[in-house]
């Protein structure tokens, strides 16, 4: 049940934080929790559509899925297997490749058709390719999109605030506001309009994302809590459960972390 995480090419790294191919065989009744992160999620699914929603009673099947920033898990019935590619877009990537601010789909899950016909065509062209060819094709596709991007990025002030709140800094929202030269209220309004979250929500989300990264590397949860800036392991568990609907150990056991090099490489 491998997953493949080739490096994102250098010219694309400010737009795509990571991408991953996966081909899992799973228990038929397993429900995957698509956890919140600081990225917009783009999924190209193969073999059968991805089935996803915020409520198991109202999921939708899609060959291409786009999910905006969110603070609760997406629920994904796996139906025994998952085979596809997940691309994690940064705010710059959302504007460059989807021509919308990352906040435009905040709290939403939509099909690729709603986000642009080109995504559907991209999926169709990748379906029958092998893994290395899929990632080569995606590289060419995204590089081509960059050559004619017309959507302007967020203002330098907003980009600075985003960076302060998401890149391992202990900066508070007040400090981020001072760095931009804006009042806290003005930062809040502009930030929510561009990113779909408040600065405080983003700061909590970034800390949770870092905790996930550390926990997935095998560190004990007490060490994860200290390193990621939580008061203690109980604080980490409360925050994790709030974002994931399940505690850390359940969440970490849901999908195996089995990474392999791309076939043929």
What report would you give on this structure?
- With 265 residues, the protein is of the alpha+beta class.
- It has 2 domains: 3-146, Sandwich (Jelly Rolls), CATH 2.60.120; 156-252, Homeodomain-like (Arc Repressor Mutant, subunit A, Orthogonal Bundle).
- Helix content is 42%, strand content 18%.
- The strands form 3 sheets. Strands 1-2-9-4-7-10 form a 6-stranded antiparallel sheet.
- The mean pLDDT is 91.
Examine the coordinates and then state which fold CATH places here, giving the name of the CATH topology of the largest domain: Jelly Rolls
How many separate domains?
2
User: For the record, what CATH class of the largest domain applies?
Assistant: Mainly Beta
- Which structural class should the secondary elements be placed in? alpha+beta
What is the H/E order? EEEEEEEEEHEHHHHHHHHHH
Shape: globular
- Tally of contiguous helical segments: 11
GO molecular function, one term: sequence-specific DNA binding
Protein name: AraC family transcriptional regulator
Pfam families: DUF6597 (PF20240), HTH_18 (PF12833)
Organism: Kocuria soli
Lay out the secondary structure.
Elements: E1 3-4, E2 16-25, E3 31-34, E4 40-45, E5 50-52, E6 60-62, E7 64-67, E8 74-77, E9 81-89, H1 91-98, E10 109-111, H2 112-115, H3 117-126, H4 131-146, H5 156-166, H6 173-180, H7 184-195, H8 199-216, H9 221-228, H10 233-244, H11 248-252
Antiparallel strand pairs: 1-2, 2-9, 3-8, 4-7, 4-9, 5-6, 7-10
Helix pairs in contact: 5-6, 5-8, 8-9, 8-10
